[in-house]
């Protein structure tokens, strides 16, 4: 039996299962196991299922075992725990409150503070969905109470939440680094400049929105003294310290990304207890939620590793590389085609699912064309960010819709998102056209 046909059929089957909401871990592992069994059973030409059992089980168990015992994978529960602990210790939300005070007089200041708060939250937690969910509960209701335009009050937080994928640390960068065998520390540093550019672009959208329609953001009424600004800035020092530990420690070569995560978790716990913002019950709840999220991600990662081994068995990747090489696509056309594929998948699937489904095919193509894998990782994460707010299934938009309830219809949130999407696409073009934006910081290590 032709392995390429089996591989292509497997891809179609996985997409079909995901479309009917089968959990991605079960879809990937199930199809990969069945596909491997079929290939081994027909290896001699005749169907011999007895000969397929041992090699199939070997692929399934050996690949999942090797992944779970990966040292780099240990940073995922650490960074997830850091996010939960920092939130319960009131470390992440202080960034928003500090930005809220400093930007109070600026038109659209609360919306801008929400985006800055999302960026700060992302710099600690590394999760876009968690960022949108947490900041949405804090920022959107406050803006709605102040009389902000409903589209601006919700879309700014939904868009700002996507920064969690790009600003280090990022769970998506960790998964990408593990599956492509690239430096996770370099990936973290590569996401800094694109993340800052994205954040500044969102602030520009809010500024132009409010300038064109002043009624969208009522002016602040009250008094903010220099002392208030100083106190707000000082209150945000734990979040700044944690970010400096992560980025400064990695950039300076003092420790690895995994060590940075462990140090930051310890620091967040100590700060939380020292400031009496963290209790033992809150710490226990944080660790419990960390265990649940970690198990979910590990199941997906293990299933993806099995799927990658199956794809290598089928020979689909070399066949696609050969077809693209024969077509003599220019690098620009190749990247444009890849962008279209990711944007299309982003309309329907979650970011982790898209990544583990596409990387087995994309990485051989990228290596054939000689592209830098660190730069491509930033491009992929940016594409996944865009998918989080792209209709009809923008996960961040649905998260915000659940937070605000019936106060803002989901179509209103999507209508406000379009302006932020335009900036995201522009930033994506800049990243693709100028790889130095991604490679400058890691290249200077």
From TrEMBL:
Q: Does the keyword section mention Cell inner membrane?
A: yes
Annotated TM spans:
110-131, 152-179, 185-210, 231-251, 295-320, 332-349, 361-380, 386-405, 417-441
| Record-linked Pfam families | DctM
Which key words tag this protein in UniProt? Answer: Cell inner membrane, Cell membrane, Membrane, Transmembrane, Transmembrane helix, Transport
Subcellular localization, as worded in the UniProt entry:
Cell inner membrane
Tell whether Amino-acid biosynthesis is among the UniProt keywords. no
Q: Name one GO molecular function term.
A: transmembrane transporter activity
Residue intervals of the TRAP C4-dicarboxylate transport system permease DctM subunit domain: 12-435
Q: How does it sit in the membrane?
A: Multi-pass membrane protein
Which InterPro entries does this entry report, sorted A to Z?
Answer: DctM, TRAP_DctM
This protein's GO cellular component annotations are:
plasma membrane
As for what it does, the entry says:
Part of the tripartite ATP-independent periplasmic (TRAP) transport system.
The record's section on PANTHER family has: C4-DICARBOXYLATE TRAP TRANSPORTER LARGE PERMEASE PROTEIN DCTM (PTHR33362:SF5), SIALIC ACID TRAP TRANSPORTER PERMEASE PROTEIN SIAT-RELATED (PTHR33362)
Query: What is said about its interaction partners and assembly?
Result: The complex comprises the extracytoplasmic solute receptor protein and the two transmembrane proteins.
Name of the protein in its database record: TRAP transporter large permease protein
């Amino acid at each position: 039996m032709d392995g390429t046909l089996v591989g292509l059929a497997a891809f179609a089957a996985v997409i079909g299962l995901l479309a009917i909401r089968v959990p991605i871990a079960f879809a990937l592992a199930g199809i990969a196991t069945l596909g491997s069994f079929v290939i081994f059973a027909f290896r001699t030409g005749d169907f011999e299922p007895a000969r397929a059992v041992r090699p199939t089980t070997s692929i399934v168990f050996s690949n999942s075992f090797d992944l779970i015992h990966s040292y780099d994978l240990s940073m995922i529960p650490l960074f997830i725990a850091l996010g939960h602990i920092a939130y319960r210790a009131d470390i992440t939300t202080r960034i928003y409150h500090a930005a809220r005070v400093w930007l109070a007089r600026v038109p659209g200041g609360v919306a801008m503070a929400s985006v800055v708060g999302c960026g700060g939250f992302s710099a600690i937690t590394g999760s876009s969905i968690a960022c949108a969910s947490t900041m949405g509960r804090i920022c959107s209701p406050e803006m709605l109470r102040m009389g902000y335009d409903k589209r601006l009050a919700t879309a700014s937080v939904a868009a700002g939440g996507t920064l969690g994928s790009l600003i280090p640390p990022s769970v998506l960068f960790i998964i990408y680094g593990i599956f492509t065998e690239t430096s996770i520390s370099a990936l973290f540093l590569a996401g800094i400049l694109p993340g800052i550019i994205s954040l500044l672009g969102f602030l520009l959208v809010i500024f132009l929105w409010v300038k064109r329609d002043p009624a969208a953001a009522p002016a602040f009424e009250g008094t903010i003294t220099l002392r208030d600004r100083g106190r707000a800035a000082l209150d945000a020092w734990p979040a700044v310290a944690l970010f400096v530990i992560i980025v400064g420690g990695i950039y300076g070569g003092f420790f690895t990304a995994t060590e940075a995560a462990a140090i930051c978790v310890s620091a967040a716990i100590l700060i939380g207890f020292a400031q009496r913002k963290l209790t033992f019950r809150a710490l226990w709840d944080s660790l419990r939620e960390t265990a649940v999220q970690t198990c979910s991600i590990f199941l997906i990662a293990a299933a993806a590793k099995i799927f990658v081994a199956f794809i290598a068995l089928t020979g689909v990747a070399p066949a696609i590389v050969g077809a693209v090489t024969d077509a003599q696509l220019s690098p620009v056309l190749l990247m444009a085609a890849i962008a279209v594929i990711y944007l299309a998948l982003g309309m329907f699937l979650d970011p982790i699912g898209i990544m583990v489904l596409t990387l087995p095919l994309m990485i051989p193509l990228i290596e054939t064309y000689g592209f830098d894998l660190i730069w491509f990782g930033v491009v992929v994460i940016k594409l996944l960010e865009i998918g989080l707010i792209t209709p009809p299934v923008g996960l961040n938009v649905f998260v915000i819709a659940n937070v605000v309830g019936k106060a803002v219809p989901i179509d209103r949130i999507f209508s406000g998102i379009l302006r932020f999407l335009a900036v995201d696409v522009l930033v994506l073009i800049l990243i693709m056209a100028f790889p130095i934006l991604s490679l400058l910081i890691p290249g200077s290590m």
